[in-house]
Amino acid sequence: MIYQSEQLTIRRLDGDIAELNFDLQGDSVNKFNQAVVSSLTAGLDALEAESGIKGLLVTSGKSVFFVGADITEFTPLFKASKGEIKPFTKPQNDNFNRIAALPYPSAVAINGIAVGGGLEICLACDFRVMSTAARIGLPETKLGILPGWGGTTRLPRLIGVDEAVTWIATGADQRPDAALKAGAVDAVASPEDLRDITLATLQHAIDGGLDYEGRRARKHGPLPLNDTEAMMTFFTIKAMVGQQAGKNYPAPMKVIDVIEAARNMSLEEALDVEADGFADLATTPVATALVGVFLADQLLGKKAKGWEKKADKKVEQAAVLGAGIMGGGIAYQSAYKGVPIKMKDIAQEGLDLGLSEANKLLSKRVARGRMTPEKMGDVLNSIDPTLSYTGFDAVDIVVEAVVENEKVKGIVLAEVEKEITEDTILASNTSTISITRLAENLQRPENFCGMHFFNPVHAMPLVEVIRGEKTSDAAVARTVAYANTMGKKAVVVKDCPGFLVNRVLFPYFGGFNMLLRDGADFTAVDKVMERWGWPMGPAYLLDVVGIDTGVHAAEVMAAGFPDRMQPGFKSATEVMFENKRYGQKNGKGYYEYVPDKKGKPQKTLNEEVYGLFGDSAGERREFDKQEIIDRMMLPMAIELARCLEEGIVETAAEADLAMLYGVGFPPFRGGIFRWMDTVGMAAIAEASEKYAHLGKAYELTETMRKMLANGETYY
Q1: Residues acting as catalytic residues
Q2: What's the CATH number for 3-283?
Q3: What is the reported pTM?
Q4: Mean pLDDT score, 325-337
Q5: Which end of the chain is less packed: N or C, by CB atoms within 10 Å?
């Protein structure tokens, strides 16, 4: 053994080849934390002192190669200054440079995921062999930063500027065939042949059959572009990436700036420019926000896995009540993820609609080459449409997805409870109705909870699992486990009107209706909020949700929280409803919608809509952009704070993710609590005081006032 630690080993193989094997003890994956970086430095010291070595084989003892840096170490790092952050990348760059400069060739066997720093160490090696089961990529821009261990330097010199920028700017994982075609890897092998082929490649280089020194020169020198080629290349790339990334995500454009600035430099000079770029981005609020989202997502996943471990049985057969678009979406998602499902409705037309929805979604996957027709047939066959309860005594969970009417749901739930076994979990897909009240007519309320999907089911990642007063841990555990199986992000919340997401969303709509009452143009409000980062403004969002659904939900919320959600005036949204303008579902709402050639509804403005508002909208006038933002966001932020304080949601991180995954809150702001931390509680309090005349929805909670006094933050 040449070197051994809890992070890695270096041992001598036959033929005087050294094997560097990463196997981080106490963790299921390899990641570059400070301990691994220090251990690699010590290991390379030992390797360089070893005589007679002819080649280096780099491997992983895990099922994945490397998941990159330990992101948990970024949080304290990003609070430092640029000058303090820049040296962070140097120790690892020194390690990788030492691997790249060894007096003999190196080859890496990429047996699984190799992303971020995991790919960067591969780039430092002379040869790369990739398993057919592996994926590689540089996802750092998704965290608001750029690759800091040579990714912006070595990758463009290896595969060309255009391809490298595409890889880094999108942050997408690359499949073996794409990586081989681009030249990022030298060979692709089956998992069982990977080690042998990598060793054979290394031996071929040792024997002089592969010019590893020529490869090194290419990665250490300037980019092979003259001034004219460089000008055209970078001009084109900047235009393309700038349009796709937008102004709120600076990392992709910084990547191009770094590559361009270092194009004529040596490797060492280029790495210094890269370190500057890394430090520049690490000090931005966007990086803090996106790293926070990443860590919050890990927390959410860990909690969901914890619930799954508590589940008394695996969901092997599911059922959904109510077909239609929502029921069909739930059936599709369940069947697609491998859980057969019964889809019951009271009418054949409903079943036809549900099957049509599932068929449409599956056909799209086939058309895009993501599924074979045979697989599509298997998935469709695992959806069992039925008009009766036959076979319901064999299901593990039933999701009720009938019309959003408390009386109807109560009848259906009591009815189906008689058809299922005593340990079957019953869940309601209600978006606003109290789970505790719905449980009143049930014989086994402990087996009942909410399972609120967001529309469209296949696209929206969030599922709220709602615990009623009598809901058992067993019911929550099995429901979360089912959500996990369906590929969803489950947030467990307590019962209250609107639960978490809708309870917080409707004060936002309330702020919108008050703006219209006071003379704002709904199109102007939409533009301001979209530029602020929302995927769609409030008027457009109401059209997509369905104005009839919105009005009904608003009534539930007003009854639940009359002190701050009862508008006290007829809103423009109610006027839309009275005029049967329900949004996209019937082609008319705040906007009007005409399908394009692909059937996608295209938004247009009909000026006649302004004539319908009457007294619900004041005389039109322009509003300052910041006033629109404050009046829209304050009620939402304060209501989310109430939810956290009341224990509706357990942590600020879960609350922030729920808003990101449920309604599309801007990721680059990190969530509502992260946004409040960024602007500061003092600014929130100042805006609250300014708009206090608008009602209790704009009034800080007592806890928020204490946070202001004590200088506290949510994170």
Answers
A1: 452
A2: 3.90.226.10
A3: 0.92
A4: 94
A5: N
